[in-house]
Design a protein that fits this description.
Order of helices and strands: EHHEHHEHHEHE
CATH architecture: 3-Layer(aba) Sandwich
Number of strands: 5
Oligomer: single chain
CATH class: Alpha Beta
Helix content: 55-70%
Distance between the termini: 22 Å
Radius of gyration: 14 Å
Number of helices: 7
Shape: globular
Length: 138
């Protein structure tokens, strides 16, 4: 079974029902991959997810709803953590790949956990990584 990491943008689209095709496709992708047992997220995704729902979507989402989403993700996905060593590696990858730091941190976390597949809307940056399979389910 090939594990696939869902990037934060996919989690957001799946959780915020704005009636768009992106919401429906992201939700279908998340549910399908949870059922197959191959969905992975990073603790970083949960941090970014919380910030976006609390500060960037309108109206802001209340903390209990955000926590319910997070609890659901954690109960149904493998959750990857990172360490100080991961941050050190991310600093190198950031310059090497010319991507934003938080993308490089996610890449470093994936590499440390042998995850070679990501579902994201941000195809451009993640395609810079050798041997990474980038899927845009939207």
């Amino acid at each position: 079974m090939t594990k696939i990491l869902a990037d934060t943008n996919i989690l957001i689209y799946a959780s915020v029902n704005d009636g768009s095709d992106k919401h429906a496709k992201a939700k279908e992708f998340i549910i399908s991959n949870i059922k197959e047992g191959n969905l992975v997220i990073s603790i970083q995704n949960l941090v970014e997810f919380s910030r976006v729902l609390k500060e960037k979507v309108s109206p802001n989402v209340d903390p209990n709803t955000i926590n319910n989403y997070i609890s659901g993700f954690c109960a149904n996905c493998d959750v990857l953590c990172y360490s100080a060593e991961t941050v050190l590696r991310a600093n190198i990858l950031c310059d090497l790949l010319e991507v934003h730091f938080f993308d490089s941190l996610l890449i470093a976390t994936m590499q440390e956990n042998s995850i070679l597949k990501i579902a994201t809307e941000n195809e451009k940056d993640f395609k810079k990584v050798a041997n990474m399979v980038v899927i845009n389910p939207l």
